[in-house]
Known about the structure:
The chain has helices spanning 3-16, 21-31, 35-53, 62-91, 98-101, 103-133, 145-150, 154-163. It is mostly helical. Among the domains are: 3-53, no CATH class; 97-137. Helix 1 (3-16) crosses helix 2 and helix 1 (3-16) packs parallel to helix 3 (35-53). The radius of gyration is 50 Å and the shape is elongated. The N and C termini lie far apart (113 Å).
Amino acid sequence: MDCEECRGLILTDFIDGELQKEKDVELHEHLSSCPECVKLSETARQTLVKPFREAPLLEPGDSLWNGITQRVEETARLRQQEAERIRQLEMQPQPSPKSLRRPHFIIICIFSLIITLAVIAGVYFWESHIVKTGNPAAHSGVASATSVASSTSVASDATIASFTPQPPK
């Protein structure tokens, strides 16, 4: 172990008494051969550890303990009250929303459901009719192209024929 590593350990784990056994053995071997690191170790103990070990143990006053005790008891009491309030709320039956208790709301919902089902059924039957007949305009009141052409006059037929492309002569 070199002096730099030894100094780092002296100022941290060695002073705190938390040095691992392997490192403690290495540190003591180094201290047995290095007077500078021994001096650092003694100086660190005198200035960093001794003042705290020799400091008088101060006892907090009764007023401090009484204040802490009162706050702890008050917090426990408030937590118990809150827990009891939550238990009471959980045991109460939950009322249904007012809107669901009104008869007219239920009637409106049923009426809306009936209309929706009627629209869906109408669309279904209309689409099934298209599949069967192949003609969407047959019952919709919209005239098809063939019915318009058959009801036009001869002049209209001539007009349509004039727009049809003629083969080259």
